[in-house]
User: Which sequence fits this backbone?
């Protein structure tokens, strides 16, 4: 299985918000209008820390300290803080199956287009509860667990369908800003999301029509095609026009008061 798909979990927030972006990116790459972006310095550091975490964390309070050799002090602290959080998660778990850096696919749910690599999963068989953990070692953008498409897709890939798991807790572990966020949902809620929100967005990726392009600040932020997207350009012009209109109104009111 390839590590990332065109509809990988990490891209789902953008794809669900703007399904048209998938085909546009593909077409621009085919014509070499855009190239596959190279990992930034921050992304490369994140990838490195993910690999260290995999080697460092063997299980509850079983840590391979040699994996930290050569790391800067700040990076060592991030790994140790993430591991400490995971140790706390294990305190409420009895019988479990845990996996690190797991290739997951939503094929069992009928959506083979979505697959990727999950950072860490724990299936608590006694309580029929799954824990989906995502390491976020950056500090630039705060990430939340609630209804997070990336983590929901990872959850579906980890538990597969059908399953005896009844509840799932999504965990965002962002130690650089001391941010640890969780959100719990039932397997029924996950099922509805996969066959509703996600399935609709994936189907729209392959449909035709301008309506599938929905520009916005969040979905356009990391989109490789944003500088070649007519819908975004129209959106930006409207934003600029609205901004200028508000500025003129503010100046007009201020002049009236003077």
Assistant:
């Amino acid at each position: 299985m390839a590590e990332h798909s065109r509809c990988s979990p990490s891209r789902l927030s953008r794809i669900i918000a703007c399904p048209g972006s998938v085909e546009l990116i593909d077409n621009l790459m085919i014509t070499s209008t855009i190239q596959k972006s190279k990992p930034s310095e921050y992304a490369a550091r994140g990838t490195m820390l993910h690999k260290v975490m995999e080697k460092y964390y063997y299980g509850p309070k079983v840590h391979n300290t040699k994996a930290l050799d050569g790391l800067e002090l700040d990076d060592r602290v991030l790994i140790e803080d993430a591991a400490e959080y995971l140790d706390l998660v294990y305190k409420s778990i009895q019988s479990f199956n845990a996996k690190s850096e797991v290739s997951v696919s939503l094929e069992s749910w009928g959506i083979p287009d979505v697959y990727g690599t999950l950072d860490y999963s724990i299936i608590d068989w006694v309580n029929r509860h799954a824990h989906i953990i995502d390491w976020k070692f950056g500090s630039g953008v705060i990430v939340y667990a609630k209804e997070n498409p990336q983590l929901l897709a990872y959850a579906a890939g980890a538990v597969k369908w059908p399953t005896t798991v009844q509840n799932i807790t999504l965990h965002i572990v962002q130690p650089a800003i001391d941010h640890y966020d969780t959100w719990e949902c039932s397997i029924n809620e996950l099922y509805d999301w996969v066959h509703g929100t996600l399935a609709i967005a994936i189907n729209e990726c392959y449909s035709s029509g301008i309506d599938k392009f929905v520009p916005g600040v969040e979905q356009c932020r990391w989109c490789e095609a944003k500088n070649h997207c007519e819908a975004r350009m129209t959106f930006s012009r409207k934003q600029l026009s609205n901004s200028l209109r508000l500025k003129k109104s503010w100046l007009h009111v201020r002049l009236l008061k003077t």
Summary: The first helix runs from residue 12 to 17.
